[in-house]
Amino acid sequence: MRYWLEQEDDRGDLLQLQVRQLTAASAPQAFEEVRQRMHAARPLVMDMRQLDFIDSSAIGELVLLARQFRTRAAAFVISGLSPPLMGLVEMMRLNQVMDFSPDVDGAFAKMATDTSGADSHHGR
């Protein structure tokens, strides 16, 4: 099963999540697809507007993915989380270790204006 729809444009790569739930069963495979894009050295936006539910195991996989991107100094932003999921992100303070944007255009704009790359995760 493919979890992401891939698109490229001159701003970077866009992966659109194609499932509504990320769980312990699906997250490892879903995020492995993202890891394969890590070597491209292009800005990456993960559009998660389809997502309705994410369990604690999937959140752990997401944090691991963020660390791997940061280690490689690869820029990525997660976009499109619903208000309830964004509330969860803020409650868990994940917005202090990853970048989030309400939409894809804002995510690409954030990376374009971020002069310090993947090391600047201040919850903007």
Please, could you describe this protein's structure?
This protein has helices at 27-35, 56-71, 83-91, 104-113; strands at 4-9, 12-17, 21-22, 44-47, 53-54, 76-79, 100-101. The chain is built from four helices and seven strands; from the N terminus they run βββαββαβαβα. The chain has 124 residues and is of the alpha/beta class. The longest helix has 16 residues, at 56-71. It is 35% helix and 21% strand. It has a five-stranded mixed β-sheet. Strands 3-5 form a two-stranded parallel ribbon. The N and C termini lie far apart (33 Å). The relative contact order is 0.17. Mean pLDDT is 89; it is low at 115-120. The protein is globular, with a radius of gyration of 13 Å.
* Rough outline: globular
How many helix segments? 4
Residue share in β-strands: 15-25%
Radius of gyration: 13 Å
Q: What is the helix content?
A: 25-40%
SSE pattern: EEEHEEHEHEH
Tell me the strand order in the biggest sheet.
1-2-4-6-7
Structural class computed from helices and strand pairing = alpha/beta
Report the span from N to C terminus. Answer: 33 Å
Low-confidence stretches: 115-120
Count the beta strands.
7
Largest sheet: 5 strands, mixed
Which whole number gives the mean pLDDT?
A: 89
Task: Kindly summarize this structure in a few lines.
By secondary structure, the protein is α/β, with parallel strands linked by helices.
